[in-house]
Structure formats: structure tokens, C-alpha cells
């Protein structure tokens, strides 16, 4: 069958899709978007988390045919999604810190996050990242990285809803994303860091 | 045409700083957070086929016949292969060559590969595999020590040709290592208290998140290019090439992104299968296991039964220890012999005990094969001896930490193997530190009003208690782990380092075959190159078999051994640069001849800090390119009767304090905090060190309270899924404060000590000790289940 | 395999009538696992995602009509006041991602004894609105579960909605799993107080071939509360009564030993959960603070 939908703002069409295929397979094997990861394929790890019409879902549990006409955002589109959100100002227009400012963030003695290495934030060839992506790198929340895409999509959506989550809120929101490497401490650091960089200016919403 | 996604160079921007000792960020970080990092399952080729493995539903059966005709006729199927299609070597193995590439006449465990299918879609391959008719005749099962060593026990490998076959007491014993030292009977007579205990450790899975995957692409020269997630490229190569009937240079392996490993990628999984199908069909073949298959696709941590006896005098000194450790190795040897060596030589723990009788062995059974997992034989022993320490302390009415400190080893101590511990062993200090950390506040789940936040209570979101039945307990544990390959293994690594000027800036390229599995080796290699060569720009070349072996990413060894190789090679590059400099500029400044020269900030400087010239000027158009091997001090095999020998090159130590809250009525556990103190010699990257410690600690927590592959009496795996094999979520994992000690080991590069495994050891017994403290139950088995805590 | 995408409810019913073996898929959280792991290869999948009315709920005088596809997340966010027991259970379903897709209708369709929504439905009182081209019928939820992963739907029927009695008193839900999140029930229990009728209803999950009510326990408690005048005097329930209630709840279960837990443990856990949840609801009824598990401010 043919499936037509929007991925990361772009219209995509796939032909000869087997009816039993998942959205995850469609993204990874037919559309060249392997960022969403295939760790369990049973909704028990969150590594394939994508936004489906805005809601974080496990792409492995969405039948490919079900996304006809719908909008999907994957980790590959997270930076754009985040930028559009801050430019559009619809939900997070009042966020205070620019990407550039976030990049030069330094932990003070009482700062959030793991230390004073933020000056090393440049890690690649100038790829523009969303605040949560940058925070994951800076906080050391990435080891093998297989859980990272799903965690980023989930955490980004959390911060969209709740700009200053408590630790318990973060834990509950991320409880569907397994990580086997980090012990989660640096992931908590990263979400706290992104929240701190994002400021608390989200009037009328959040915690 | 061509491989669309392959591993790339990792280059950090010129703004990146960070030599040895700094928390430099990962060079692959940006790729990993944008989804662009190419993991093995992301490999893609535009005309590739999908491979699928048909596996045995039986744990022990004779294969009477295999009929592939109907599968082969399925449209879209390009190949079906069985044992009969193998034309060259048919077996492989890390230590013993006992594992069939595809089952040959007999299957020896549930899930053993029987046949392969290649098709144009994974579903086509699955449907075709379902049409392969295999006629099995079930055989009697070997499932434990009793059935393995019974007089009429079926021999799982009747024609063993391994190097241990002649000195095992029974052919169903893979390897046995005794250690005897001192006079146990005399010491026992001096003991005021004697404590004996039976302990059991369940089968833990590595549960790395990126399932076994890879892409094999047939090459025009008749060889094959394999993109693969593994822990040791060259060990794979050594096993793959003979099966394909190819010289090693025609099997070109490149490391893809690896989604975690923890020991589970040390053995081959789908590597040979993908290559066989690719060569057979002439097309690229991709194999990706799903989670169900992954549980059958790799070895697990050995389940163990342990018997321990300790004696002590009234003043708290341990007189003697006797132990017997029986590890279930499953159907094939994997790394069981080395696991036995570790279990045996580390069974005493980080304590000075002069009189010991130790026996460790691994069985061949029809259970799932077991082999390497983080902690490698030391985990099981640590759970048992730490339980013993608590019981001894209780018998003597002593503080459990104080009792351990009395018996703690320190530098200069003699191991049961006779080996003298010749670098710092701050066991008592680690215990002191972990005990001194501030305690987490009580009842953190109480809300301001009268409510309770279930997220901080046992049972979590499941809303099982609002405080009822909840009791806090505190427990301590400390462990000892060897670093690097032991028992006389030639443990070396290779690095190639190139230094050249690109766009007016000196750039170092570091090329090794080290498997980056998430641990951050690529970060550390760049840091070492910066420190040794005084450059900022470092490129990490993808790991492949075009450079010499790096050994495995296991045994907490890569920073030590491949880090050591990178350092050593950088030193050789530096010498060459200085030679070039002396030739060009020596006559302009006497310091070129007389002073100690360093490379710093892109310049040649004297040890007094005087700048002689820029690296750019020394190199000009020249490229310095050096490949070197580096090895740590040799070790010795253990004597097969007495167990004596300097078997290990380095030891590492970590201590934990666990604070738990147990719902004593429902038997549910919330770990509130798991504090760790560890000596790491020297932190090359503090952020990575803490990440390793917290990750290892969490895997230990998993073993303590939830993780177990449950094997039925028919030797079948009952829970091969993430629905029923549970690993900790972020709501199960506590805060993990870490206190890092840096006491240099003068024998190791920069004084470092391997980090990644020791915290996995002590985490488990600390959590269980805390649960015992909360419940008063003896708890001799992990994982601790609600049934154990409620007597149901 | 065929993939049908009916645009509205009538088309869906027609499709199901034409293909009685068709498997409906909404949130996909059960069906896709079976497809991904080759446990099931239906001839036809009927996608219910495009049917807007399945995503709607309405609150009536006594009953909430919950569209079959309303996600657990929305139950938590939008219906906690009307369906507190179900909302508590919804919060324990899988992960946030699963809760964004999974629904009570899906849970009923799958009819797994471990489904988290069954016990609160049993405790609150509910009817399943089953519809086919032949018409609509209401199936009391107690009669809906007919066996392990079997329900009372006819082959041509689809679940349109669930009609759940609005809470008229405190409700609680508790489940045991061996992990603090994202865990399938080893066993689960729900209780609902109905002060209007002076009755207590219960639901047990994952401890029998189907979800069941503990009717003897309900009768015992109803009688004990009546006898002690508790509905009028609001006195604390004597520990002996709560204990006996717990034992009778466990007695109503018929659990098995499996990889998730032993039968003995399941019975034991039910006694504890029944006693505790009864205590929480009764305390709430007495107005002694909100004992429901809320996040700290």
C-alpha cells in the first residue's frame, strides 16, 4: 500500500508498504530516517519515541498505514521543531535564552549540571542543536547513545508542557525510556540543564 | 549504489579543548543527539537482502532432517542455508572452538541457530523460515551439576579438543580452577566463630539496547566487507575468516555504531551468518535481531551456586575461607574458562585471608550459553562473600564496615594466588568514605499535606503504598575486580597516529581498532593525543581491521591498554617530530640538544617553557605516521592444582552504601540512594568516569532486585522480552553520589586504573544487605523477588 | 494482509461485517507487538484511528460514555474527577508513550487478564457498548470477559464506547509489579465505595483467567459496614474487618504461577492491596485529607 504523511515538516510518500509494517520500519528503512531506534519493538523501551500529531508515541507500535495524512516529528527534526517553536512563540515564545547563550552556559558554583566544562560545548561542525540536544551532550548524558533519540523527543515534549519540572516530574515523564549505560543521573542533569537554560518565563503554563 | 550509511571520522571543532584529566565532551555527541550516528542496524545498501535465522525450539535434540525446499520456492527468497552448505570451518569459539556456525546434527540449547534465510523483505524471510521443516528427536537434558556429572550423563561435547579437556574432573565441566594456600584446618581450629552460607545468583542479561545487527557486502575480489557492532573486531575476524574459507585480509571489518555491549558482544552472533549469506547470494545482506532474538543471540552472565565458609577470631580477624563456586556455562564454552579463573582468583574479595581452599568450575549444560558480562565472574563471588562479611560481623557483634576494615587488603597484600598487590588498594579508605557521605533524608515521599508521592515509594506509580509497611535499611559492600586480560594472555593493543598540517593547523589522526561501545574511548584517545602532541585538532578514524588489534572493549581494559597504545604511539610521533625539528632548527638554539622538549599549544617548547618553534614549521609538508603495539606487564597462568601465579595485571576497587526502603508487606523495594566510592588511579575524563560508575552501579541494582533470565526445567528461556526481563527505569534508579579517589598506579599509563566494572560488583550486595537490614531476612539469592520478602 | 482505513464508524462496522476475522487496530499497543513478533498474521487490519467519535467522551447524569479510543493520558487529564479509579489505573499503564496511544477500548478488546483498566471498571460498574451493522447492545463488564484474552464480542462487533458509572464515592487502584514504572501487573486490585447505595465494589486483575469481582468480599463488607453503622457514623473500619475483607478478596482470585509471580504471592498481595486501598478510600470518605497519591506541590 501507499502511505503519505508529513515527517519533520516535509511531505513523504512510501510505496509498496507491507500492511504489517510499523511506522518505525517505515521511517528507518524506507525514508532514510534511522534516528528513531529499534531497541525492543514492543513499546517497552522508548528508543523509537516520535511525536505523532504532537504526542510522544512509540513508533514501533504505530502501524505504518495509520499515519496516512498525519504529522510526525523524529529526532532528526527535533532541532527545527524546537526552533520553530521558539520562533513561532505559540507555546514557548517567552523562553529567555537563545541557542547561542545556551551554548556558552557555564555552571556557577551552585549551577545546575555536572561541572565547568561547558566551554567545550562545540562538539561538531557547527550543527545547530535544540537546547535539549545540547544539554544531553554537555551533561554527559550520552554514552552508547541508542536510547538518546527517544529520550530527547520525550524530554523535549516534557519541557514544552512543563518548563521547570521537579525531579519527580522528570522521572515520571521519562519512565518509559530505558537507558542501559548511564544510570540516568546525567540524563536528569541534562533535563535540569535544558530547563535552566530555557528560563522560567513560560507564563501561565507549567508546573 | 554503495553503502549509504557507514561510520565516519569523528572530528571535533577547533574550539574543543581538553587533554588528559579534563571532562572533554564526546566527539560523537552531536551525531548521537541528531540521530545521524550510524549504528549497526542503521547500515543500509540499496539492493540489500534481509537475513533471518531459524532457531531451535528444543534445548537438546537430534536433527533428523531439514527440508528447505518449500522455503526456497517462496517468492522473494534468495537463499536458504543450513549446516550442509558450510564448505570450510564449521565451528568457532572465543576459547574453545566448540560452537557450530549452524547446528550440526544436534542442537544443544533453546534458540540455537539451525538455518538461515535471505530475502528481499524481513517479512518474506520470516515467512520462508516458517516453512523450513526440521525434524527433531528430543534428547535427555543436562540442566545442572547433578545432571551434568551423573554417571550416565549425556556428554554434550564428547569429542573435546580444548586445552583443558585433560584436567577437568568430568567432560561436562568446561574448566575447573582450584586455589589452595595456607592451612585451612589449622586456621579453622583458631576461629571463634564459623559462618557458612549457600548463595545463588540468577542469570543476568547484558540487555544492551542496540540489538545484534550488521551488514555484509560481498566484494569484487571475492572477499566481504562487514559493518558490525562488536567488542573486538580482530577476535571476530579470527573466527569468521576460516568459516568463509577466506584469508583474513579479504574479510574487511569496520565497526559501526554500537548500542551498548557489557560483554554481550564478545562472542560472534550474526557476523558469520551475514557474511555467508552475502557470499552465497552475491548481494549485501543485513541482519537485525529483534529483542526476542537478541535474548538468544548472545551469551549471558553465568548463573551461579556458591558455598562459602569463613571463620574469624573474636577480635574480628578472618582466619580462613573455603568456597566452592559452580557456574552454569550452558551449551558452549564461550569465555567460561576465563570466567572460572576470575571467579576463583577473586573469590576471597578485597580481604587478607591467609588460609584458603577455593574451587570454581563451569559446567556444560543445555541451558543458554553464558560468558562475558561486566564483572566477569567476580560479580557472583562478591555477592556471596559480602553476605558472609555481614554475617560474620553480626556473629561477632561488630560494625559491618569496621569488621571489613580490619580485614581489608592494602598495597603489599598477598592474594590467594600468591600475587603481591603492587599498587594502591585503598579498601578501608573507600569504605570510610562511602560511610562518611551524608545520609539521604528520611521519608522523602511525604508531601507537605498528608499525602504521599508514590513516585518516591516502593511500587512507584503502581500505587501500592502510601507509607504503610515501609522500612528503611542501609547496607555496605566492597569488591575487587581485575583489570585487563589475565592468566598469561598476551594482552596488547595497537594504535596508528598521524600528524600533519591541514589548512595551516597541525592535526592528529588517531586510528585504532578499539570498539567504541559507549564508554567514551574515542573521547579519551583525542584527549591523549592533545596532551602528548600539543595539538587541538584531533580526528578519530573509524575502527576497522586495517590497523592492528586493539583487544576487546571489556575487562575495564581499553583506557589502560588502547589508551596506553595511543599514548605510546604519540610518544613515538613526538620523537619523530623532535628529530625533524632538530634536523631543521637544531643549529639555531642549543636547547634542541640539551633540554627536555615537549609539544604544547602547537609548539615545541622546553621543559622550562621556552618556545623553540611551531609544529607547523617543523612539519611543513611532512606527515608523521606511526603504528605501534603496546602491551601491559605480562601475567602468568594459574597453576592448575594450587592456583598459584601472578595472574592479574591490576586490581580495581569500589565500595557502595545502599539505602533502601522496603514495603515489607508486599515485598517491593525502592532504592533511595546508592553511594559509591572508587579509586580510579587517575581520571582521564572525570565526566566519563562518573558515567561509568553510575551505569555500572545501576546494572548491579538491576541484578539485586529484578533482572533474571528465567530458564524452565526444559531448559527453555521463559522471558525473552523487555516485558518480562526487566531492567531498571529512571524511577527505579536512585541518586548515585560518587566519590572518586585518585591513587596512581605507577605501572599504568598516567597512573590510571580501570573503572567500568568494579562498581557492578559491590552495588548488588550493598542493595541486598540494605534489604536484609530492613527485613531481617537472610536472602541468599539474587535477584531478590517479592516472594522472597513475603515468604510466598 | 489487507489494511482498511474506514473514514467513519459506519464504514468500520461495514468492514467488520464483511471481514469478521479482521483485527481492529487503534492505539496499536497490543496488536503491533503481536505483528512485530510474528505472533499473529491477520488477513485484515481495520484502522480505527480516523474515526473521530471514538476519541470523544461525554459525561451524563450517572454515566460517563467513554469513546473506545480515548487515550489513557486523556482519561488522567480530563476525567480524574468522574472516574478516579480508572484514572489511577491509567497512570500505571505502560509508559507515557503507551498512555498516549492505548485506550480502555483497546484493553477490553484484548481482554488480557493483566489489563489495567479492568479492575476499576468492575469496581465502578460499567457496560461495554458493542456495535455491529446489526445494532447496538450493552454488555455488563462482568459478562464481557469470557476467558484468557477472550471477550463476549461477536465476530462482527466493534467496541464503540464504555459506559462507566460516575464515581459517587472514593475509588482506589493498586497494582503490584516488580518494577516501579512501566510494568505489567503481577496482580491488581480496585475498590470503589458507593455511599449512595451503601455498597462497596471491587475488581481483581491478573489473578484469574479473567478479571473478576470479589463478590463474597463485597457482601461481607457491605454487611459489616451496615452492621457497624459505618455509613452513618463514619467510624474507622475495624482492622479485623479490613483483614477479613482482604482474605476474601484473595479467596476470589484463582491465580497461577508464572514468570511474573507465584500464585501464593498474588493471593498474599491481594490481601494487602485490598486492605490498604479500602483504608485509603474510607479515610477519604471520612474527609481525613486526600489520601490519593498525588504529586507533592
UniProtKB/TrEMBL annotation, chain A:
The 2Fe-2S ferredoxin-type domain, residue ranges: 1-78
Which Gene3D superfamilies does the record associate with it?
3.10.20.30, [2Fe-2S]-binding domain (1.10.150.120)
* UniProt region (Disordered), positions on chain: 78-125
A GO molecular function held by the record: metal ion binding
Could you tell me where the Basic and acidic residues compositional bias lies? Answer: 78-88
List keywords of the entry alphabetically. Answer: 2Fe-2S, Iron, Iron-sulfur, Metal-binding, Oxidoreductase
Cited Pfam families: Fer2, Fer2_2
**Coiled coil regions, renumbered to chain:** none
Q: What is this protein called?
A: Oxidoreductase
Q: Which organism is it from?
A: Wenjunlia tyrosinilytica
TrEMBL record, chain B:
Give me the ranges of the annotated region Disordered. 1-27
Pfam families attached here?
Answer: Ald_Xan_dh_C (PF01315), MoCoBD_1 (PF02738), MoCoBD_2 (PF20256)
Q: Where is the composition biased (Polar residues)?
A: 1-14
Q: Which residues form the Aldehyde oxidase/xanthine dehydrogenase a/b hammerhead domain?
A: 34-140
Tell me, what is one Gene Ontology molecular-function annotation carried by this entry?
Answer: iron ion binding
NCBIfam families noted in UniProt = pucD
Protein name per UniProt: Oxidoreductase
What organism does the UniProt record list as the source? Wenjunlia tyrosinilytica
UniProtKB/TrEMBL annotation, chain C:
Output this protein's name.
Carbon monoxide dehydrogenase
**Classification via SUPFAM superfamilies:** CO dehydrogenase flavoprotein C-terminal domain-like (SSF55447), FAD-binding/transporter-associated domain-like (SSF56176)
Q: Which residues form the FAD-binding PCMH-type domain?
A: 1-169
Gene Ontology molecular function terms on file: FAD binding; oxidoreductase activity
**Stored InterPro entries:** CO_DH_flav_C, CO_DH_flav_C_dom_sf, Diverse_Substr_Oxidored, FAD-bd_PCMH, FAD-bd_PCMH-like_sf, FAD-bd_PCMH_sub1, FAD-bd_PCMH_sub2, Mopterin_DH_FAD-bd
The entry's keywords? FAD, Flavoprotein, Oxidoreductase
Source species, domain of life: Bacteria
The record ties this protein, via Gene3D superfamilies, to: 3.30.465.10, CO dehydrogenase flavoprotein, C-terminal domain, Uridine Diphospho-n-acetylenolpyruvylglucosamine Reductase, domain 2
PROSITE patterns from the xrefs?
A: FAD_PCMH
